[in-house]
Specification:
This protein has about 450 residues and is α/β, with parallel strands linked by helices. The chain is about 50% helix and about 15% strand. The structure holds glutamic acid.
């Protein structure tokens, strides 16, 4: 590693001790952008990198709520407002027991670059809580969301900060959060995205992250004269991103071999059908069940407890579960099983030594900030529709999403292509950075 980069990272670690996920996210970006940073006198003069790696502010608060058993429980919650140079802070809320400040800072930092890549006027932020919605009743989730919004509502607004969903936060949670916000401020504004269609949500928002990841994958395949038809695809996860990535892959003629959850994975040797996927969607979205329950009822589907999909022979891998699910060992497994393209539906699912494996072996590696940007892009379109006070059709939103993913692909190629390799991660980091850095220079010392 270059000495300047190393010194910069040492300083960052000293200023933010113990925040390993945040260090990891910055390290991934900094190596690609440092030469460009040094090339621009104004960036160095204005200390853009020091300022861009420090969130504008972090709001942290306790959320107390009453359980069905009459006891009072409490959780920690945060909103990391990372950078609003390009637009209002924008990014999801994550409810998961693993959530801490480091994870939210890594996600907020990534979001700044991802949102810049969409070409829409969106800054970057992230929030969430270590609350675990699993095993809680609907009423408990409602009381938690209502209480959280009491703490959060002063700091958000349609031109200030617009949260959305992420792991553990879907339509149900957004509904409770939005209802409480409306009650507290006595205004209907597009302060959250991912809302239900009947109250201001956008067509395709639920599908957007997964669909977008498949659209950009298709562009990368077309670039080498290839396509998705008959490709074997490994998908991890079984949340929103995984399910709709699977749906779009199947619609495009690919074979989706796997899905997974925190307990294990399912394998469909000849690929899942759209009908099977429909049933799995019902199980996950409505019944809130586990994949093992589906496999138990369908003998053609194999179930492997405590296993991830990466050792199965296939062409494409789409990690859509969570951060750091692919380390160097799994990256080697993927390479050995014939994978030539990795598109990240999740945020930072591959560790730096895993990424190094992909780069060294010249695999096509499309990082989350490009591959999963379709979700936040449609959130941006939801904000536009709310401001215009109208709703676009399914087709209109899908067209716009396809256009945005095409542009992101082009930007990655423009800034990441060398003679014999397209480094999509470098392209995404450089393009995302230049826009934010230029804006910050224009503002002066703010
Ligand atoms: N949580 C999603 C992401 O990681 C969506 C954020 C949003 O729509 O604001 O990009």
């Amino acid at each position: 590693m270059d000495k300047d980069v190393k010194d910069f990272l040492t300083g960052l670690i000293e200023r933010n001790p113990h925040e390993v996920e945040f260090h990891q996210a910055v390290e991934e970006v900094i190596q690609d952008i440092y030469p460009i940073y040094l090339d621009h006198k104004a960036y160095v003069q204005d200390q853009i990198l020091d300022r861009l790696t420090e969130p504008d502010r972090i709001i942290s608060f306790r959320v107390s709520w009453e359980g069905d058993d009459g006891k009072i429980y409490s959780n920690k919650a945060w909103r990391v407002q990372f950078n609003n140079s390009l637009g209002p802070y924008k990014g999801g809320l994550r409810f998961h027991p693993s959530v801490n400040q480091s994870i939210l800072k890594f996600l907020g930092f990534e979001q700044v670059f991802k949102n810049s890549l969409t070409g829409l006027p969106l800054g970057g932020g992230k929030g969430g809580s270590n609350f675990n919605p699993k095993g809680k009743s609907d009423r408990e989730v409602m009381r938690f969301c209502h209480s959280l919004m009491i703490g959060l509502h002063r700091y958000i607004g349609k031109s200030m900060d617009v949260p959305a969903g992420d792991i553990g936060v879907g339509a149900r949670e957004i509904g409770y959060l939005f209802g409480q916000y409306m009650r507290l401020v006595n205004q209907w504004t597009g302060v959250l995205t991912g809302k239900g269609i009947s109250y201001g949500g956008s067509a395709i928002r639920k599908e957007a992250t997964g669909y977008g990841a498949v659209y950009i994958t298709e562009h990368a395949l077309h670039k080498r004269g290839d396509g998705l038809a008959n490709k074997k695809v490994l998908i991890s996860g079984s949340g929103n991103v995984a399910l709709y990535a699977a749906e779009k892959c199947i619609q495009k003629g690919a074979q989706v071999l796997t899905l997974s959850d925190s307990k294990g994975m399912i394998l469909a040797k000849d690929g899942l059908s759209l009908e099977q996927l429909q049933d799995i969607k019902y199980l996950k979205e409505v019944a809130r069940g586990r994949l093992v329950e589906y496999a138990d009822k369908h003998p053609s589907i194999e179930y492997f407890a405590s296993k991830a999909p990466w050792a199965i022979a296939a062409d494409i891998a789409m990690p859509c579960a969570t951060q750091n699910e692919i380390q160097a060992a799994q990256a080697k497994e993927l390479i050995a099983s014939g994978i030539f393209l990795i598109a990240e539906g999740a945020n930072m699912p591959v560790t730096p030594d895993g990424i190094a494996q992909f780069r060294n072996n010249k695999l096509i590696y499309i990082p989350g900030k490009a591959a999963n940007a379709g979700g936040v892009a449609v959130s941006g379109l939801e904000m536009s529709q709310n401001s215009l006070r109208l709703s676009w059709t399914h087709e209109e939103v899908d067209q716009k999403l396809q256009g945005i993913m095409k542009d992101i692909h082009q930007s990655c190629v423009k800034y990441g292509a060398s003679r014999d390799y397209i480094d999509y991660a470098k392209g995404a980091n450089v393009y995302g950075f230049l826009k934010v850095a230029d804006a910050m220079v224009s503002f002066g010392a703010v």
